[in-house]
Amino acid sequence: MPKLNELTLLDAQAKLKAGEITSVELTKSCLEAIEKIEPELHAFVTVFRDDAMDSAKLADKNIQSGVWTFDTHPLAGIPLALKDNFLTKGGRTTASSKVLDEFISTYDATVTEKLRLAGAVIIGKTNMDAWAHGSSTETSDYGATHNPYDNNKLAGGSSGGSAAATSSDEVVAAIGSETAGSIRQPASWCGVVGMKPTYGRVSRYGVVAMGSSLDSPGPMTKTVADSALLLSIIAGHDPKDATSSSLPVPNYLEGLNKDVKGLKIGLPKEYFMSSSQPGINDLVKQAAKKLEKLGAILVEISLLDPKFSIADYTIIQRSEVSSNLARYTGVRYGHDRSFFGDEAKRRIMLGTYALSSGYYDAYYKKGESVRELLKQDFARVFESVDLIIAPTAPVTAMAVGSTAGESMFGELADVLVEASSLAGLTGINIPVGLLSGMPVGAQLIGPHFQEQQVLNTAYAYEQSTNWKENVWPTANSQQHTGDKI
Amino acid sequence: MTKTTLTDNDFAKLVKQANLVLSGDEKSKIHAQLDEALSAVKVLDELDTTKVSQTTSASGLTNVFRDDVVTPSFSQAEALQNAKMTHNGYFIVPAIFEAMDN
Fold first, then answer.
1. So what CATH class is B1-48?
2. Rounded to two decimals, what is the model's pTM?
C-alpha cells in the first residue's frame, strides 16, 4: 500500500469519501514528506504547516458531520500546493522575488478561492523562477528547485516547484501557471502531467502578472484524470478577469473517455528537431504510434519554424513584463526596484525599448503581427487535424547551474511550446518514458477550448500503457517513493 | 544579420524610462545582452507581415463589457497593510517636486 502522500488526487478522494483515511492523516503525511525531502529538493518557498493542519481538521469535521459531501466539495481535505504567484489571503506570496519577500496577500486569487470553496487544504507555495521569468527556477531569489529524479539536475520552470512537489509526492497535486511553457516544460522534466488551458479558460485574477495576454493557470498532477478534475474546478468565467471566457465549463472528469478512433493527430516535422537530444523524438514518435494502435490517424504536418516563436515571444513577453513590473515601486507594497534580480532587469529593459516611441512599430507591432501569423498557422493545421503531438522540450532536465550567463536559456528550453502559447491554445504534457533515467514528455496541443479532447487523448495514452512503469522502470522503482532523493 | 547596437546615451535614457538604477557592472552586462537580444529578434524580418493584422486577444475575445456596479472592496487598513510608510491612513509617496531654495 502506498504512503498516503503518494496517492493520486482521485484515490485520495475515494479514500476520504469511504472514511478509510482522514484529511489530518493525509495532510500530515504530505507535511512529513516535505520535512524529509525539502532540504534536498527545495520545491517550496513557504509551507503553511499550522494553517494546513487547521484546514484539515475543519475538513474532517465537515466530512464526518455530512456538512460537506464530495459533490459539494470535491476536494474536501485534499492537500494541494500553489505556485507562489497565486495570492493566498493572509499568507505570504513572493513570486520568488525578494521584492515581495515580506508581502502578505490581502485577498485570494480566484483560483485559490475556487480551491478553498471545493474544500482543498492549501499546504504551501511552491518555488518558481522569480516573477516566472525563466524555465529552470534558477532565477528564483530563494534558490533553484532540484529534480526529484536526480538531485544534480533542475526541475525546469517556471512552475518547477509545483512540478517537483507533485513528482516527489510532497503533495497530492499542485497548481502552476504558464505564459509559454511554464507548466508543460517542468512537467516534462519532472515526469508529471501538466495541463496548460486555453488562454482565458482559467481566471488570472490574483495571479502576479507576467505576460497578461498569455498567462494561463493550470493543474500539475500525477494522472490525467486528476488533471481533469482540477481543471473543472478552477476553470470558468470570472467577472474580475475581463479576458476570462464565458463559455460553459464541461465536467472534464465525467467527459473523460479513451476513445481516439478516427482522431487525426498531426506530427509537425519542424518540432522533431535534429538538434534535440537524441532519443527524445523517438520516444514521442513511439507514443504517437501507441495512439495510432488505439485508432488515431497520424498525419505529418508542417508549422512555422519554431525559431520565429522564440523571437516573437521575446518581444511580446518582455513588453508585457516591462508594463506589469512598472507597478513595483515599493510604495504600496514590496521593496523598491533595486530588489529586482538580473533577469527581471534585463526583461524590463528590453520591453521598455520595444514599447518606446520610435521603436514600437518595428518591435511590438511587428511582434503582434507575427503572433497573428502563428495563430493563422495553427488554424490552418487544425482544419486537417484534431490535435498535434510533439516533444515538449528538446532536452531532458539540465544540470543545476546550466543557466548561468545564458540570457536566452528559457527561450531555447521552451522552443517547442512558445508558438502554441502565443496562439492561446491548450496543451498538455504527458510523460512518455525515460532517457538516461530522466523523464521525457510529449505534448498534445489542441484548438482553443478543446481541453476535453486533449485530456481524452492524454488519458487514452496513459491508460493504454503501463505508464508508471514506463516512466519509473522497475530498476529504478525505489525512486518513486517519498524518499526519492 | 545586421547587429543592433544602442549608444551609451540611448542606453542611459532607457534605464531612466525603465525606472531602474543599474550599477556599472550591470550596465555593461545588460547593455551587451540587450544588443544581442535585439539582433536575435530581427529574425522576424524574414516574415512578411504587411498584410497581417495584429493579435488583440489570443483566444479571440472582443469588446467585453460589464455593468458598472460598485462592489465591496478593501478597507483602508487592508489596502495599507503592506505599505512601508503610511501617514493618517494614506500611503507616503516619494516627492515629485523639488523644494525651492528660498
1. mainly alpha
2. 0.95
